[in-house]
Each structure stands twice: as C-alpha cells, then as structure tokens.
Structure prediction request, 411 residues.
Amino acid sequence: MFRLTDFDYHGKTVFLRADLNSPVTDGKIISDARFRAVLPTIIYLLEHGAKLVIGTHQSKPYKGDYITTEQHAEILSGLLGQEVEYVEDVFGKYAREKIQALKPGEAIVLENLRFAAEEVKYKPIEDCEKTFFVRKLAPLIDYVVNDAFAATHRSQPSLVGFARLKPMIMGFLMEKEIQALTRAYETGEKPRVYVLGGAKVDDSLRVAENVLRNGRAEVILTGGLVGHVFTLAKGFHLGDANLEFMERKGLLELVDWAEEILNEFYPYVRTPVDFAVDYKGERVEVDLLSEEKWLFDEYPILDIGSRTVEKYREVLMGAKIIVANGPMGVFEREEFAVGTVGVFRAIGGSPAFSIVGGGHSIASIYQHNITGISHVSTGGGAMLSFFAGEKLPVLEAFKESYERFKDLLKG
Prediction:
C-alpha cells in the first residue's frame, strides 16, 4: 500500500477522504475526537503544499444527526488555526470551481457526501468508478488520501471509486489503525482476551466465532446486548421486560447462533454473573441466581453488575493482548456507567497491549479520562469486521491502487 511519505504534494490537488462522522446533540457536534485523529494527516498535506479537498459523511438520511458539514469546517478551522472553507456542494459546478481555485496550502470541506444519492449505496469498485461523483471529480484530482478507517468496511464511491484511477494513499491514521489491529490479530502472545459489548450483536458473534475457531483468542468477555444474548443462550432467563425489548430489536433470533458458538467453545465465553436494573429510577444490582431475579420481569437491565466487573478485571489483568469493542451498558446514564468504566479502567491498568474501539466506547473513555489503553480505534463496525476475518473493501482498494500505480515510485 502507498504511504503518505511516498509522494510530493506541492501544488497537487489531493482528495482526502476522512471520517469526521461525530456525535450530535441538539444540532451541535459534541466531540472533536475524530477531527483530532485525522489532524496529523491534514497538517502534513498542507505543510507540503497540497491543495486539499476534504470529504466526509455525517450520519444517514432521516436521522437526527444528519447535518451539513458546515460545523465540521468550523471545527477544523479552529484546530488548524487557518480557514477551512465549507463548500455547500458535493460534486456540482460550484464544488468543482472551488476545487480549481485552490492554492497550495489551502483546504476546503465538501458538503456531507451522503447528500449525494450515489454515496448511500454499497457497490463493487467497478460500479463506484462509474458514478457521477467519481467521474466529475477525478479529472480535478492528482492523489487520493484515505484516512477514513472507520468506514473501511464499506464500498462506496468516495471510499473506493478513485482507487484504479488515481494513486490511493494511506493517511497516518489509517496506517496506525491497520498496524495496531494487525498486531493484535496476528500475534502469538497469550492469553488474548476479547471484550465484546454494545448493541452490534451479529457483528460481535462473527468476531467471537472467527477468533475462537482460528485460535486467535483464549477468552471472550461479554456485556451489553451481546452479553444478554449469550446469557440467554446459556439457558438463563432475563425476565419478560428484557425479552420483550430484545424481541423488538430482533435479537432473540440470534440466540441460536450464540448457542452454537457456546456448544463448540463453551468454557471460553464468559457472561455476566450479575446485572444492574433500573428500579424506579435507581440502580439496583441483581445476581443472576438470586431470589431478586424477579426484578428482570418488570425492570430493564441497563448494565453489568459489580461482581461481574471484578471477575472481568481479574481476567484482564492477566492478559497479554486485549481487544474491546462496545460498552457494557447504558453508560450515558451515570449510574449505569459503572460496568463500562470499570472494565475500561481495568483494560487501561492491564500490562497488555490493548485496543478499544467503537464510537460509544471512545466517548466513554474521553468522558471519564481513562488512560493506559495502547490504541483507541476510531472504528467500531470496521474494527469488528477486521476481527471477524472479513475482507475490508477499502483495504482491498488500497492494494489494487498500489498494483496499478506502483511504477510511479521508481526513480
């Protein structure tokens, strides 16, 4: 794959595909974590005289955080100490004129890429090449730098469509992410512990199945809705209120799959021994085998319990490699952040090489000032796809681009 330092960018027009998709509350971006993560790449390109065209998406159509990239431009301007102009267009005449007018060391941010219908669908690279998005912008671009690790599991025009037309280069963030994840996945160091939480249950089941079947993990610790599904698969009852919620979310149909994983790898998958429920607005911890488990019938489970946190901590402190994705509960409510914060603090305190990923996980880490984690990944779904052993379209596109343009490096 091409690295950022392989080329001279002075006077060249560079399309930088970043992933600045950020949490939004009341129409305002509330975290600049992803902006700071891509900053080294932006600074390098600008300092080396690139004419920089930044593209990013923000959420999906019809969702509450689906906004323009005007704030993204403002945040980048503040972080860089220079104007990054917001261009209210994706690939139309106005956008193309703005790109052509750029001078070395200047940067613009295109409108939310998902305002273009072509950018919403997943298509093979050959179809992405034929889109208006790519055909309109490709003639104006010399290089494509892709630093959108969090979107590497998607095949969309802005992510893969230029790869066979222009040299596609890894940004510093992309390179750092791939190196960290590859180290964790391919290492021979043991024990390797995976912590799977959050709501992406099907993705987490794929990870569990892959790393256990291929001998890449010794222990899997579960929490969040992933923990719920495995707990049900072990034959425990989580009460009518929680079963109804899981049925609405379509999670009960995954229990059989989780049971198949347990049948093959039972001792290696750990599930919570206690949970915290929202009992009339307060946190109440209930042991899975106690008489108080009737509370599960009426009150929602929103976190793992303190005994589970301690058991997980013991495992994590003895680990050599830790991969974690997703929170242990509804950490947005302070009283139900105990599990997530406790487990993440244990990961930070462990001597292991550790990776934690996922948007909610990152938010919790920064919110509670958790330190000591070796690598905080910007990707949630992408990270899960990587550890599930799946081919990531963007990484495949990097390889194709390298094969096509590698002669440019000679001499």
Observations:
- The domain at 2-170+391-409 is CATH 3.40.50.1260 (Rossmann fold).
- The longest helix spans residues 33-47.
- The chain has a mean pLDDT of 96.
- The chain has two domains: 2-170+391-409, 178-378.
